[in-house]
Amino acid sequence: MKFSCHFFNNQSYWTWHSFCILINYNINYNANKCLQRHGKIMRGIIMQENLKIQGRTHIRYYILAMLFVVTTMNYVDRATLSMAAPAMQKDLGMNAVTMGYAFSAFGWSYTALQIPGGWLLDKFGSRLVYGAGLFLWSLFTFFQGMAGFIAGISAFALLFGLRFLMGTAEAPAFPANSRITSMWFPTHERGFASAIFNSAQYFALAAFNPVMGWVLVAFGWRYVF
C-alpha cells in the first residue's frame, strides 16, 4: 500500500506539473500574440498621426528644398577645379599628371570617410555634422583660389591638401540627405524625396557651369573658387 500510494502521488504530481506548464505556455503565447497585435495597431496609429501632422504643416517640403539647395552648393564646389584646371596649369606650371593627383585627392578622402561620416551622423545628429561639413567644405573651396599665393607652400601641396580636406568635409553629405529624408518623409514619399535631392547634382552642373565659365573668362580662375 505504501508503494502504491507513493506511486500514485508521484504520478499525480507530474500530471499536475505538466498541466501547469501547458497552462503557462498558453497564457504566455496568447499574451505575446496580444502584444504583437496591439503593438502593430499602436505603430499604425502613431504613423497616421505623424502623416496628419506632416500633411498640415508641410515642413518636410521646406526641409527637402533645403537639401536641394545644399546639394547644389555641394556639387558646384566640386566642379570649381574642373573649370579652373586649364588656366591653373598654365599659371602655376602644373602638368597633367600633377593635376590628376590633385583631382584624385578629393576621391580618396571622400570614399574613405563615407562610413565614419555615417557614424558621426548617428552619434551627433544631422544638424551638427551637416552644418559643420557645409561650413568646412565651403572654406576649403575658397582657399583653393589662393594656391600659389602662400609663401613656403607649393601650389600643388596646398591644392592637394585642400582637395583632400574638402572630400573629408563633404563625405557625410549624402548619408545625411538619406537620414533626413527617412526622418521627415513617410515611406511612400521617400522615393520622390530622394529623387529631388539627387537631381540637385545635375542641376548644379547645368545651371552653374556656364556661370563659372563666364567668371573664369571675365575675372580669372581664382574667382571661380
Structure description:
With 225 residues, the chain is mainly alpha-helical. The protein has 2 domains: 1-57; 61-224, Growth Hormone, Chain: A. The protein is 87% helix and 0% strand. It has 8 helices and no strands. Helix 3 (96-112) packs parallel to helix 6 (155-170) and helix 7 packs antiparallel against helix 8. The longest helix is centred in the first third of the chain and has 56 residues, at 2-57.
Quick recap of the structure?
With 225 residues, the protein is mainly α.
The structural class is mainly alpha
Sheet with the most strands, sense and barrel status: none
**How much strand?**
under 5%
**What is the name of the CATH superfamily of the largest domain?**
MFS general substrate transporter like domains
Described by the principal axes of the CA atoms, the overall outline is: globular
Q: What is the residue-averaged pLDDT?
A: 80
Reported CATH architecture of the largest domain: Up-down Bundle
CATH C-level of the largest domain = Mainly Alpha
CATH topology of the largest domain: Growth Hormone, Chain: A
Key terms:
225 residues; mainly alpha; Growth Hormone, Chain: A; 2 domains; 8 helices; disordered N terminus
Helices and strands, with pairings:
Blueprint: H1 2-57, H2 59-92, H3 96-112, H4 114-124, H5 126-144, H6 155-170, H7 173-184, H8 190-219
Helix pairs in contact: 2-5, 2-7, 2-8, 3-6, 4-5, 4-7, 5-6, 5-7, 7-8
